[in-house]
Design brief:
434 Repressor (Amino-terminal Domain), 79 residues, mainly alpha, globular
Length: 79
């Protein structure tokens, strides 16, 4: 899959952010709901989904748990 990476953003951050957004939408969950459940701000979730921030492993585990998926499902296979 070809993805144009905006200048100044890491490829990994963009890909993981897109996967989190896709999974969250498939589960019909809002950013506000997810952020509240994992204990971060709504803005932080938005920045992760846009590829500005890369979540650490602890937060990636929390996100996966709340979305009811395996952690490796949030990491695209090309990474």
């Amino acid at each position: 899959m070809f993805v144009k990476i905006p200048k100044g953003r890491a490829y990994e951050a963009v890909m993981i952010g897109q996967q989190i957004r896709h999974t969250r939408r498939m589960k019909d969950m809002s950013q506000a709901s997810l952020s509240q459940k994992i204990g971060v701000s709504l803005e932080w979730i938005g920045r992760v989904e846009r590829g500005l921030y890369l979540p650490n492993l602890k937060l990636l585990f929390k996100i996966a748990k709340e979305l009811q998926v395996r952690t490796r499902d949030l990491i695209p296979p090309e990474l």
